[in-house]
Write a structure and sequence with these properties.
eight-stranded parallel β-barrel; 16 strands; three-stranded antiparallel beta sheet; about 15% strand
């Protein structure tokens, strides 16, 4: 009996070892597949827009292109961990864009006109022409602009008066400084992820809600109609960091709704690139062949908070991307390597080797929260520039107190981080 048990144990160990060997060999094969081998440096018959051909992007003149840039995070949508605003004890006490508006409306010191004025003060100060010029002078060619349905509409369908003012403005400035713009719907009505950075951490009520889905379709139809002829716009990033359920990563329900948005846009705009986000690993997505999409770019976000090195993490992304068979260009729409300069440099070298486009997170942040206190998770260098200022409580502060903070968020009051130096060196190579 003991002999039989020993034989079984040896057999199971051999089987396990064999499986591990197969997995290791398979991983190495996937890791070494180069989808960009023999890629053409120029395509014939360009259409004047950024477009995807095979696994690469090409500019309007048909020359191979990689989008290299940065996000304008914390501008349209302040995030509680890097914001200059708070809501004190209002509701949950956690700042989100929607809760921030609600807190101001409960503040006896503010009326609707004051709220509108403060919004405009913040928007006019946080990102200015100086910032767009600075991004271009570093050598970048792209900004990813992260906005919410609340910036363009009051309820998802009713357009705000002059709601497109700031999108139009930043696109115009980027045209002036020869930068591309990726339009990123970071917060959809109902929330596509119930994460605070969507502007709403209270609900996960986009998918399967006919009214909210219809409003999101309407919003993208409106955006597409407005920018369909604009060549400064590189493309449309349909939904940021979608989740199939709170805390659960992207899946078929999200890709099926991407298809609804894709087809709605294509009836209006046949030319612009469309970004399909797979959050977070490639295997959290689904096979895309059945959708019949054309001129798309697969997008991942990479935040390596594991003990593994950045190189190892990036290798997993490459292997899993090849495993999924996404025959499309890749855009790392958000990423960060935090404190280690070598990890930043390894990432940039990796993207260069694979021909992947990228935009790091983010251009400017307020480090007051994430560098101290309960929100300090040991990560820093979130912005090329970093403010360090205590937040103002929107639920109780006076107009003058809020205005004083909002008028101080300009980049002239921020410090350059190590990331700025990394990019300055990278683009001068």
């Amino acid at each position: 009996m003991k002999r039989n048990v020993k034989i079984v144990a040896i057999s199971l160990a051999a089987l396990l070892l064999g499986m591990l060997l197969i997995l290791a060999v398979g991983y190495l094969i996937l890791l070494n597949i180069d989808p960009n081998k023999d890629r053409p440096e120029r395509i014939e018959n360009p259409n004047g827009f950024v477009q995807a051909v095979g696994t690469n992007l090409y500019d309007g003149e048909g020359k191979i292109l990689r989008l290299k840039g940065v996000n304008l995070g914390n501008w349209f949508i302040q995030e509680n961990w890097m914001a200059v605003s708070s809501v004190g004890d209002f509701e949950t006490g956690v700042y989100t864009k929607e809760r921030g508006y609600a807190a101001m409306r409960q503040n006896p010191n503010l009326d609707e006109e004051a709220i509108k004025s403060l919004y405009e003060l913040y928007m006019d100060t946080y990102i200015t022409e100086r910032d767009i010029a600075e991004i271009a002078s570093l050598g970048m060619n792209t900004v990813r602009v992260n906005f919410s349905y609340l910036d363009l509409t009051t309820d998802g369908r009713t357009l705000r008066e002059n709601g497109f003012y700031y999108l139009d403005k930043v696109i115009s400035l980027c045209e002036k400084y020869h930068l591309y713009v990726v339009l990123d719907l970071h917060g959809a009505i109902g929330s596509q992820n119930q994460d605070q950075h969507s502007g709403n951490d209270a609900t996960h009520d986009l998918y399967g809600n006919p009214e909210n889905e219809a409003k999101t379709v309407f919003l993208w139809e409106t955006i597409a109609a407005r920018y369909k002829d604009n060549r400064t716009v590189a493309g449309y990033d349909l939904l940021n960091e979608t989740r199939k359920a709170p805390g659960k990563y992207t899946a078929k329900v999200n890709f099926d709704f991407y298809d609804v948005l894709y087809r709605a846009i294509r009836t209006i705009d046949p030319h612009h690139l469309i970004f399909i986000e797979c959050f977070t690993f490639p295997t959290h997505g689904v096979s895309i062949q059945k959708y019949g999409w054309e001129n798309i770019c697969i997008q991942y976000h990479i935040y390596n908070l594991t003990p593994l090195s950045q190189k190892t993490c990036l290798g997993f992304y490459k292997a899993l991307h090849n495993l999924m068979g996404y025959h499309a260009p890749v855009y790392i729409g958000e990423w960060n390597a935090f404190e280690k300069r070598s990890e930043w440099e390894d990432s940039l070298a990796f993207f260069d080797e694979l021909g992947w486009s990228f935009s790091s997170w983010t251009y400017k942040a307020n480090k007051y929260f994430y560098s101290r206190g309960e929100m300090n998770n040991g990560t820093n260098n979130w912005g090329l520039y970093e403010l360090d200022m205590p937040p103002v409580d929107l639920s109780t502060a006076t107009y003058e107190e809020i205005a004083k903070v909002y008028s101080s968020v300009g980049t002239e009051n921020a410090q350059k981080s190590m990331v700025y130096d990394v990019y300055a060196s990278y683009f001068k190579q």
